[in-house]
Amino acid sequence: MRATARAEGGGERTGGRRARFGGAQVVAAPPALAPRGVGQILDTAFDVFTARFAVCVAIGTLLMLPVEIGMEVYFGSRLREPRVLEATWGYALVGGVVQLLAAAGVCHVASAHLLAERVDPGAAIRTVLRKSLGVAALAVTVGPAAYLLFYCCVLPGVFAHWLTAVATTAYILETGWPGRAVARSVSLSWGGGSLGRWMGWASVSSLIVLPLTFFSEGGYNPMFRDLARRYLPLGWDETALLLAGPAALLAGMAVAYEAVVVVVYYYDLRVRREGLDLERELARLVARRGKEAA
Question: SS3 for 16-39, per residue?
Answer without folding.
Answer: CCEEEECCEEEECCCCCCCCCCHH
